[in-house]
Structure formats: structure tokens, C-alpha cells
Amino acid sequence: MLLICLYAGLRPNPIPQLFRNFDLVLHFAACAGVAYVTVFAFRPPLRHWIIAALFIAAIFIEMAQGALLSRRAASTADFFAGIAGIPIGWWLAREVRRRLRRWCKQKSWQVPRTRNHW
């Protein structure tokens, strides 16, 4: 998912604008989506490092757009949209995990244990 976001952010031609500030929505949604998936994909020690790396990646994408691509320009609004998406995606995933755990404890999903008979 991060590779798709990097490809979309660093392609020479910008993505067509469907409505005003569409690029801000894309930056926010991409960063929130990657942070959301990170919470479910990795255990806590590694998860925190990857979330920190996402902040660095959001900075890198905007700097690379301004420095490396002639048809693209770095934007502080895009940068802040990406930075805002990371904690929102992280928080949303943590809430979903918390509610799923509570829901699974209420349901009896486990097969009842039977005694081993001789």
C-alpha cells in the first residue's frame, strides 16, 4: 500500500482533480490508510517505528515532488494533510481493534474444551 502511495505521489503527471482540493483528500486518505493497515499488520514495538517512518515518508514525498519533478510542486497544504492523516488512521485502527476485541470476548467463538477420556 505504501508503494502505491509513493507511486501516485512521485509520478511525473499529477493525478486528475475530480473536485477542488482533491489532492488534499488523497494525501490525507493515503496516509490514514497506510497508518490504519500498519496497526493491524505489525506488533507494537515495530508498529511505532513504522508510524514514525510514515511521518518521514510524508515529508519525503513533498520534498521529492518539489525537487525532482518538473510538473509537480511541493505544497505545505499537502504536507499537513498527510501528517494529519497518520494519527487519524492510527487512532481509527486502534478503536476498531479495541471494539473487535471486546466483541470477540462477548461471543463464544472458541470451541468448548472437552475432557480427554481414557
Q: Which properties best describe this structure?
A:
118 residues, 4 helices, mainly alpha
Description:
The chain is elongated and about 65 Å long. Helices cover 72% and strands 0% of the residues. The chain contains four helices and no strands. It has helices at 2-10, 22-41, 44-68, 76-106. The mean pLDDT is 80. Helix 2 (22-41) packs parallel to helix 4 (76-106) and helix 3 (44-68) runs antiparallel to helix 4 (76-106). The chain has one domain (2-11, 24-106). By secondary structure, the protein is mostly helical.
Q: Mind describing the biggest β-sheet?
A: none
Shape: elongated
Helix segment tally: 4
Q: Please tell me the total number of domains.
A: 1
Structural class: mainly alpha
Tell me the span between the first and last alpha carbons: 52 Å
What is the radius of gyration? 20 Å
Please state roughly what percent of the residues sit in beta strands, choosing from under 5%, 5-15%, 15-25%, 25-35%, 35-45% or over 45%.
under 5%
Task: Write down how many β-strands occur, each being a DSSP E stretch of 2 or more residues.
Answer: 0
Element-by-element helix/strand order: HHHH
